[in-house]
Design goal:
It contains 3 helices and 4 strands, in the order αβαβββα. With 118 residues, it is α+β, with helices and mostly antiparallel strands. The structure holds FE2/S2 (inorganic) cluster.
Amino acid sequence: MACKRVKESLVISLYIERKQKMKVKKSPYTCQVLVCTKCRDKKNKSYSQGDIEEIKKRLKKGVKKNGWKGQVRLSSTGCMGICGDGPNVMLYPQDIWFSRVTIDDIDTILDRVKKELR
Ligand code: FES
C-alpha cells in the first residue's frame, strides 16, 4: 500500500515538474528539402566534404532566388536509409527522393519544388 502511494506521488511530481506540454501543429512549410550530409562514397569519404556542400549551397540559393522563403525549408539531415545511392535529397512531405545527386541536378530539383508549390 505504501509502495503504491509512493509511486502515485512520484507520478504526480513528474507531471507537475513537466510544465510545458508537447505541442502539435501543422508545419508552416509546404515543402522541406532534406539533404543527407552523412552519405559516404565507396572510399568511405563523406560527400559532405565534396559536392553535397555545394549542392546544399546552390539549393539554398535557388530557394532564396525564387522567393520561397517561408514556404520551403532546406535542412541537412542524417541517414535516410538509402546510403548506397548518395548523395540523397528528399522533398517532404511529398516523399520525392533524388539519389546520386550532382550539381548538374540542382535545376531539376528546384523545378520539382516549384511544381509542388503550385
Ligand atoms: S547516410 Fe545518407 S542516406 Fe544513409
